[in-house]
Please model this.
Amino acid sequence: MSGGPRGKFRPVFRRWRAGRPFWGGLLLALGGALILLTLKASLDVILHVGMQGLAGYLLPVVMLLCGVLILFSPAQRLFYSVIGVLASLGTWVTSNLGGFFVGLLLGVVGSCLTFGWLPDQEPRVSRRLRRKMAAEPHGR
Model:
């Protein structure tokens, strides 16, 4: 039965997700969270300590904040994605090689997805559907 709470939540969530660069913001936020977690790793695991001061914690927090702001304020996505990619690249020096490369890559990919997202773009027609439409006779 689709009348339960799950049946009501899923269409609402899909509509909310369709109106914003969801995957880009999520990847950017996950990259920031991952880098923050690698800062708390034991000293045996840490490859590069980096600056122990404010920058080591500030840049991943900025990444996390930009990812959340992209999800909840998609109108400002271009600004947040530029700040997010700069913060992601800055973690290379300040935060354990950008969270052992994984957090850095998640942040850069998420920022790029967000920067390239267009809200008013028509959905793409699949190649299979285009071939089917081209094969149909035009006299119908």
About this structure: The two ends are 40 Å apart (CA to CA).
